[in-house]
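Protein: Halobacterial output domain-containing protein
Species: Halogranum amylolyticum
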Amino acid sequence: MEYDIGMDEPVSMAVIRAVSAVEGRDPLSLPPLANVIDTDALDALFNPRCDGTARTGGRLSFVYSNCRFTIDNGEYLTFQLLENRSSPDEYSRRG
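Structure follows.
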């Protein structure tokens, strides 16, 4: 599945909105994305440079809420549901 990240939309919010839409759940009912990845670092990685110019290139992949996410260039988010696997959130609860 694909999701176009809005021009002023933080990447971390795009991830939450995508999961919320696919799972049909309120975003506030999802496990915190920060349990899986540093959301400030995620957003900063794809934010414009200090002089306002866009960053080009870059790809990041991670697993959250039983989905594998790939973010390309801070513009496109693709995700795939993982089958028969525990989510990272379940691992963190087992501690």
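Remarks: The two ends are 31 Å apart (CA to CA).
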